[in-house]
Amino acid sequence: MSELFSDEYFMKQALIEAQTAYAKREVPIGAIIVCRNRIIARSHNLTETLNDVTAHAEMQAITAAASVLGGKYLIDCTLYVTVEPCPMCASALGWSQITKVVYGARDEKRGYQKFSTGVLHPKTIVKGGIMEDEASELMKRFFKERR
Ligand SMILES: [Zn+2]
Predict the structure, then answer these.
(1) Which end of the chain lies in a sparser environment, N or C, as judged by fewer CB atoms within 10 Å?
(2) What's the pLDDT at 5?
(3) How far away, in angstroms, is 128 Cα from ligand 1 center?
């Protein structure tokens, strides 16, 4: 696989989204969805802006990607998200039957793996730890400033 289409390349794009969230004083989590090496959705956490606890980066990316594809199932798609999805987002990803999920930093407190790994679709491939230092550094900086 060429460097251009590596997991690191796409995770960098998700990190750019996370930085946009950070600049808006939102919890800095970003996500993108890639379909056949093309980015079809970009999003970041907007729970403060929208006053909506469901406005996580992943939820918005799922909705946007389905709209682009003109179908609800995200077949041949990969979600890149800077932090491990929560149970809500993991369940939504399960409904979408997305092919692959790649996340950066592990979330020991709110990540779905603490609760149930069965919420994702059984065929979905999961890969964690891609550029996790960058993702967790941004989260740590955000929460340190808020204290
Ligand atoms: Zn979530």
Answers:
(1) C
(2) 84
(3) 16
Report pLDDT digits (tens) over 42-57.
Answer: 999 999 999 999 999 9
Contact 84, 128 (CB under 8 A): yes
| Amino acid, res. 75 | I
Task: Reply yes or no on whether the pLDDT at 17 is more than 60.
Answer: yes
Q: Please state the pTM of the whole predicted model.
A: 0.95
For range 78-103, the mean pLDDT? 98
Complete edge-to-edge strand list for the sheet that includes strand 30-35: 38-44, 30-35, 77-83, 100-105, 125-127
User: Alpha helices of 24-77 — where are they, by DSSP H?
Assistant: 57-69
Catalytic sites, residue numbers: 58
> Ligand 1 centre and the CA of 6: distance in Å?
24
Could you tell me where the DSSP H helices lie in 2-123?
Answer: 7-23, 57-69, 87-96, 112-115
Q: What's the 93 CA to ligand 1 centre distance in angstroms?
A: 10
